[in-house]
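Hi all, a correction to my earlier message: I attached the wrong file for TetR/AcrR family transcriptional regulator. Here's the right sequence:
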Amino acid sequence: MNAEDVEPGTVRPGGRTARVREAVLRAAGDALVEHGFDGLDLADVARRAEVGKTTVYRRWSTPAGLVADLLTDMAEQSVPRTDTGSLEEDLRANARLVARTLTDARQGPLFAAVIAAATCDTRTAQALHHFYAVRVAEWAGCVSAAVERGDLPAGTDAGEVVRAVSAPLYYRLLASGDPLDEAAADRAAGAAAAAARAGVYVA
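and the right structure:
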């Protein structure tokens, strides 16, 4: 593969350059929280990260490339799924993790900014879709395990169950403005578990 064939922001640096990537992505996240995607400026990110503008422009090229790499990093840093042996407890842990993330002083505004950016930028949307595909696949394991234990009907779509847990929580964040707390998380998990047991998510 030639260098010119590589899309900017898709190659992960290693060794000593890893700290540059870490600093730039942290700065990009700060800028997104403060100004949103429309206000994301590569020169400002370079200043915040205390690295040369040339480095940022060469490696990420565009704000969309930078956000794509930020989402890749977020997926890699995400907390592994819980494995308690109980479907309800596993889904509750997932829901509470989502709620904590979305109400975090930094992570909540960051996710809101990225989601807003994805509505008008194709590359950001693709990166966001990949991020959630990684997270859904990770947590789907607890649903698949429940099927294997006989706790859920055969043929249950594990990914759909996981998405059903987090969807009401994102609705509260982005649309209704209703409280996003542990009670809401537990209700979302309980509803998804009940629907799964009833066969709603059998493919």
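Sorry for the mix-up. The radius of gyration is 19 Å.
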